[in-house]
Design goal:
This protein is mostly helical and about 130 residues long. The chain has a domain of about 60 residues. Helix content is about 45%, strand content about 0%. The protein contains 5 helices and no strands. The longest helix has 18 residues. It comes from Bradyrhizobium iriomotense. This is Cytochrome c domain-containing protein. InterPro entries: Cyt_c-like_dom_sf (IPR036909).
């Protein structure tokens, strides 16, 4: 063995390299979330309006958690923006408090006969 091996200098150089790598990676800037703090209407306008004309009907009665999970996995940049967007889509889908949704209006006038699968008169017996 040489005198330099006995002094421990061969061990210090790799240790210094590891310490430098740790310091350099610890100071790397954290990625920025550009959607942070945006209202859900703006999130929809920025990310969804290019394909969907309106937010109405997109929640389609889905459970809140499944809608959130879908948005988080596929469209939102963070869990917070997915949560806000899911809440917005659900609020647009649900009717306002105190106002029930209007029933589907028929294209026929109120006095017009209704069509049914049964014949209008009983079938004679043979």
């Amino acid at each position: 063995m040489t005198s330099s091996d006995r002094s421990g200098r061969g061990f210090i150089a790799p240790l210094f390299g590891v310490a430098a790598a740790i310091l350099l990676t610890a100071t790397i800037a954290r990625a920025q979330n550009l959607d942070e703090g945006k209202p859900p209407q703006k999130l929809f306008a920025d990310g969804c309006a290019s394909c969907h004309r309106s937010p109405r009907g997109l929640a389609k009665g889905r459970f809140s958690f499944t809608l959130y999970w879908f948005l988080k996995d596929h469209y939102a940049s963070s869990a917070d923006s997915a949560k806000a967007l899911a809440a917005y889509l659900e609020s647009v889908d649900s009717p306002p408090a105190g106002k029930p949704r209007a029933a589907a209006k028929s294209s026929k006038p109120a006095g017009a006969p209704r069509s049914s699968l049964r014949p209008p008169a009983p079938v004679p017996q043979r």
